[in-house]
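Hi support team,

I'm filing this because I wasn't sure whether my run with pyridoxal-5'-phosphate finished correctly. The job status page said complete, but I'd like someone to confirm that the output block is well-formed before I use it downstream. Pasting the exact inputs I used:
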Amino acid sequence: MSIRKRLFNFNAGPATLPLPVLEEASRGVLEIGNSGMSILEVSHRAEPYESIHAETKVKLLRILGVDPTKFTVLFLGGGASLQFLTLPTNYLSKGETADYVHTGEWSAKAMKEAKPFGTVHLAASSEADKFASIPKDIKVSANSRYLHLTTNNTIEGTQFSTIPNAGPVPLVADFSSEFLSRSLDYSKFSLMYSGAQKNLGPAGVTVVVIRNDFLAQAKEDLPAMLSYKQQAKADSLYNTPPVFSIYVVGLVLKWIESEGGIAKVAARNRRKAEVIYSALEEFPDIYDIVVKNKEDRSDMNLTFRVKPEAREKDFLNGATAKGMEGLKGHRSVGGLRASIYNAFPEEGAVALAQYLREFARK
Ligand SMILES: *Cc1c(COP(=O)(O)O)cnc(C)c1O
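And here is everything the job wrote out:
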């Protein structure tokens, strides 16, 4: 089996995966281990899947660098979007407050789902700036149930360069478009969630990492599928989990470790982003980087515009001709976006930088 021509895939999600992962997953689709069965055919309550499930959790906490006795990993369905609802279902009640930092379309959806449960307090917002920056002055209300951040804003192209201090308030983060992309003190977070299809694997599984002391505070007597406690008690096997997606997440984690862990991957992510931002900055008459404050620029989703806008189509056609796909911005904001998650190759970033220069000089 081989690939005719592998494109540089700049899509925001589902997104590019490491080639060694695709190769191993292809073999797993035919036969997993020496089981005589495909990963698509095995029981979720027997070997070899049981080991895959257990090892994937161990690897994830090891890569995060957190104490494995203090955190629980859940593999859930419904995407990050269902976590927008599951989170307040478990932690917010009438008469209580949860704090949210509003940084774009995804945080808007997270807040919308929380509102029916209790008071949603806007701790900070960059709406006045059309979400082209990260708010600096964050005011967390007293006795808040949690502070919710969207650490990387996939659509707008912003990223928290430093994680705000929430004091005694539990810190919760939607890490969907950057999980495991940089070195952070992940032990500070009480709950982290991430749809896999951006930076972790295929669509179908959402990875949730909860600190055990925060898990203990979740409400009881909820519908099982929405209960963090019941999902944790069942080790994410209350019902059939997305077996194949979890398997591929495990392969991606193995790949991250083989690349040298988060620190190495993060350094490469920084170089990839830098090479593209630098090329854009060389031609201010042709390119407009959406996020002006460098500190707020995402290393994962780089948003920019071509001037005049009428040349955008030309730009995209030229990119396609060079084997670069997925550079169109999110339909809600337009413009252009280069999504360069962990698995996106450095050569692809260099190729885009070269094309940006070529196009600008045309
Ligand atoms: C893509 C994305 C989501 C939505 O993820 P689904 O898994 O499609 O529900 C939520 N938050 C962020 C930051 C995202 O990038």
